Each structure stands twice: as structure tokens, then as C-alpha cells.
Amino acid sequence: MATAIRIERTGGPEVLGVGEIEIGSPGPGEVVIDVSAAGVNYIDTYQRGGLYPVPLPYTPGLEGAGRVAAVGSEVTGLSVGDRVAWQGAPGGYAERALVPADVVIRVPDAVPDEQAAAVMLQGITAHYLVASTHPVAEGETVLVHAAAGGVGLLLTQLAKARGATVIGTVSTAEKADLARAAGADEVIRYTERDFVEATREYTRGEGVAVVYDGVGASTYEGSLAVLRPRGLLALFGASSGPVPPIDPQRLNQGGSLYLTRPTSADYTRTRRELEWRVGELFDAMANDRLDVRIGGRYALTDAAKAHEDLEGRRTTGKLLLVP
């Protein structure tokens, strides 16, 4: 038996109960992982609240890291004792997780477990946004909302590494300092100044090539307004709530704009693509080119507190549960 967080019904953080689950032996193509760290993500709150329906009862957590405890048949390249991380399979909020081997990646010695767990979803998200959704080109100006958040700090660093000028939005002075330390060229505290006005002023009316927007309802209209002609709005999250339907004519009026709502699953459709993205992230981390900030560590039994802090925007960087 393993201690795990269980959701029996959808609702607020209070529905994150603690229970015992039987993991059992791995089947064909599966491995059992002793979890050393599990990432906390906004998608976990969407599933918990019912916005993204999942079968109940349910153990949340779509990423984590640890050591292989058991290997099923038809699994190659993984052995008991290997340090690994995974993404895209549920069950991370637990002492042990049963995971399909095809979403598991071996972790190099130079990357600690916590940092590995921290980038399997947010790092992949940042990577596909700057490398694929809108391949950032040297000299472009981009806008990153929530630039001191888990994805935002990684996005800022990866965009800067590709030669971009980065504008970040944040809510507090502390978060502004973190965004600047990550490389942001201009930081806008949206609690003090309208980010649309500030962005237009900074770009001298030209606008930005792309807005990376994980906030959603409260920012999307402004995000569209600061794009240059033929610019792209990448809506990759909705921490302030889902975006209502958008009239395509709005994109025409803004200058033949583009709009996309990407998701990690579509950018890791093949094993080769998954290995490419994670490999580049791990290499950057191992060689000190990518700093992964752990903003909060919580005991497994404090999962509800982690969700409360995340949804209350009281956090920076990555939140982890540590069984």
C-alpha cells in the first residue's frame, strides 16, 4: 500500500483527501516509480474542480521524479534503481506511481530529482512555446504574462537564449525582481500600470511578435491589443478563468492576428519529440544555462495548501509535493 491523495468528488482544495492505494505489479509497458517529488500544476486544479473532467476516484499529479521500483514486461531501456522523471500520466500525488514507460525519461546525474520533476510539464510547455508554437527569432520582442511563475521564469530564460527582448508582467515588487533576474528586459507591474499602455510605449507603438498568456480571462483582450500585425497570441492556460469565445473578426481588425490554444500532449506526440524537448531542458540545466526555481515544497498531506497557494497567486516558481 502507498499513501496517496485521492479525489472522490470535484470541488475546491478541500476535496484533496489522503488515503491508501494498492499499486500492484506493473503490467506490460509499465513501470512502478518510488516518487521523490511531484509537480503541482494549474491543470491539477482544473481537474480537481471539474473544468477538465476525469474519472473518479482519482489520484492527481501529471509529473514527477524518483526511482524505478519495478519494471513490467516489454519495457526496454529502464531498470530497477534508475533515476527517472515522467509527464502526462496521472498518479504523481503519491508515494508510488504506476506509469507507462513511454512517458518516462532517465534523469542525468547532474540534474537533481526536484529540478527534474519541476520541468516535466512546465519546462516542456516553455520549450514548445518558444521552439515550436512561435519559434522565437533573434531580435523579436515577446510578452510573457505571469513572468515570475513556474512557466514564466522558464519562458523568459528560453526566449532570451534565442535572442529575444522579453517584456514580463507581474503583480509585486518581489516578482518583478525574479523576472528581471531571469532576464526580462522590461517588467510591468500590472497592479500599478496598464500593461497594454506600457507595452505599446516600450515598443514605440509597434507591438510584440507573440504574447505567451497563461492567465486567460483577465488578460486576453489586452494581449490581443499589444500584438503587432500578424502577431500570435498563444493561450496556454487560464489561471484567471477560461477565455470566452472570440469573434474571428477581432483577429482581422487587430492586423491579421493569429490565435492558438496549445497543449503539451500535442507537442509530445512521439517519443522522439518528448526526448528532444526534455533532453534540451536537462542539458541546459546540467550546464547552468537554465535556472529552475523551486518556489515551494509541501508534504504530500499538504496538497490542499499547495493548491490554495497556487490559486491564490501567492507563489513564484515551481511548487512540489515531497512524499
UniProtKB/TrEMBL annotation:
Keywords tagged on the record: NADP, Oxidoreductase
One Pfam family in the UniProt entry: ADH_zinc_N
GO cellular component, as recorded: cytosol
Single Gene Ontology MF annotation: NADPH binding
Keyword check for NADP: yes
Keyword NADP: yes
Protein name: NADPH:quinone reductase
